[in-house]
Amino acid sequence: MSIYFDNAATTKPFEECNRAVLRALNEKWGNPSSLHKMGIEAQEVAENSRKAIAAALGCESECVYFTSGATESNNTAILGAAKAHGKRRKKIVTTSVEHPSVSEAMKLLEANGYEIVRVNARSDGEYCFEDFIDAVDDNTCLVSCMLVNNENGLIMPVKKAFNSIKRLYPHIITHTDAVQGFLKIPFKASELNADLISISAHKIHGPKGVGALYIKKDVRISPHIIGGGQENKKRSGTENIPAIAGFGAAVRVNMANANENAAKAQELKSALFRSLMRLDGVSFNSGTEDSSPYIANFSVMGVRSEIMLHYLEEKEIFVSSGSACSKGAKSSVLKGFGLSDDRIDSALRVSFCAENTVGEVKVLCAAIADGIARFRKQ
Ligand code: PMP
């Protein structure tokens, strides 16, 4: 039996999700824009999922727009907000530890004349909301800060930062990439004071290739994908109804168990850290406070990440050496948190879901101990 500890990269779809996808493929294959009954039935599938997502975000259904995933949601939020609000105000504030779907969009805007200010972690690796307040000014059109970092699980001070920014500069658009926080740590759109929120289905046991962007009522952004005017003119293209059906089903299952699942993940993370503490030369790159219970990051000093990752893989244990998106490249995100090259080179990310067990954590730790004995240079 294999052990899957790479849930921050993607999760196994729930049975409920798969059934909903198949039902939509077989029975609700009309075009949701068609005016006849088959179109209306397909549209109903999308509206049911929209309702479930809105309930999870604590907002009205009209604020939820379906996309092809969080990469598109992030691109749309950032490029769309800059286009709509950046004509006179050319400054954007973000962080140095964002996912590439945010950081690359920022680079594109930078090349087009925007001033991008990247807030850094303090020397202890923490982010302080005051640093965001110091970075914004009247010339700022957008602030984008992720909710939970995908590599080390740090919960960013989005709520405090956005609430203060909105009080001081109500015109600034606030965006959060909430992919690793949605249905994993409790939050509501209104508490965050976010105008734009990106989420993805495949991180919560839904299908790949579908996500959503929350757009607060009356917040204007230019559409990134234009065409037939679907999704209330915010995102053109025939909606991926089967994937949207699966997304809604996954959201419902998660909502019913969110607190219980987070407690389970916390138990697993604590068990992992307790076991790793007994091993020589393991440094922890993520904490237990202000940190997602679902993500643990640590360095097995003296053993390169890839060596340990493939050793574990031989034993059918799957972990990550960083984010799946960076495919072996040295993590600029961990560098952004101030880690030394040695620590980055030996970093492993273990990410949980509620299906994992303490027994699996024990198997992982025993395998890491074996790996250390085999590979660490004396
Ligand atoms: N943001 C974060 C924080 C992520 O972890 C990911 C997935 N790696 C994305 C955005 C992109 O999501 P998607 O795969 O749905 O495009």
Strand order of the biggest β-sheet: 2-8-7-6-5-3-4
Compute the gyration radius: what is it?
A: 21 Å
Q: What percent strand?
A: 5-15%
Helix content: 40-55%
From the coordinates shown, what is the CATH architecture of the largest domain? Answer: 3-Layer(aba) Sandwich
The level-1 CATH class of the largest domain: Alpha Beta
Note the run of SSEs as H and E: EHHEHEHEHEHEHEEHEEHEHHEH
Describe the largest sheet.
7 strands, mixed
Low-confidence stretches: none
Query: Helix/strand/pairing class, anyone?
Result: alpha/beta
- Span from first to last CA? 33 Å
Q: What would you give as the CATH superfamily of the largest domain?
A: Type I PLP-dependent aspartate aminotransferase-like (Major domain)
Shape: globular
Q: What report would you give on this structure?
A:
The chain is α/β, with parallel strands linked by helices. It has 2 domains: 3-11 and 257-375, Aspartate Aminotransferase, domain 1 (Alpha-Beta Complex), CATH 3.90.1150.10; 15-253, 3-Layer(aba) Sandwich (Aspartate Aminotransferase, domain 2), CATH 3.40.640. It contains 12 helices and 12 strands. It has a 7-stranded mixed beta sheet, with helices on both faces. Strands 9-10-12 form a 3-stranded antiparallel beta sheet. It has a two-stranded parallel sheet with strand order 1-11. The protein starts with a strand and ends with a helix. 4'-deoxy-4'-aminopyridoxal-5'-phosphate (PMP) is lined by residues 69-71, 74, 99, 101, 146, 150, 177, 179-180, 200, 211, 323, 325.
List the helices and strands and how they pair.
Blueprint: E1 3-4, H1 15-27, H2 37-57, E2 64-67, H3 70-85, E3 91-95, H4 100-111, E4 115-119, H5 129-135, E5 140-144, H6 158-168, E6 173-177, H7 189-192, E7 196-200, E8 211-215, H8 241-277, E9 282-284, E10 295-300, H9 305-314, E11 317-318, H10 332-336, H11 341-345, E12 347-351, H12 358-375
Parallel strand pairs: 1-11, 3-4, 3-5, 5-6, 6-7
Antiparallel strand pairs: 2-8, 7-8, 9-10, 10-12
The structure holds 4'-deoxy-4'-aminopyridoxal-5'-phosphate.
Residues 69-71, 74, 99, 101, 146, 150, 177, 179-180, 200, 211, 323, 325 line the site of 4'-deoxy-4'-aminopyridoxal-5'-phosphate.
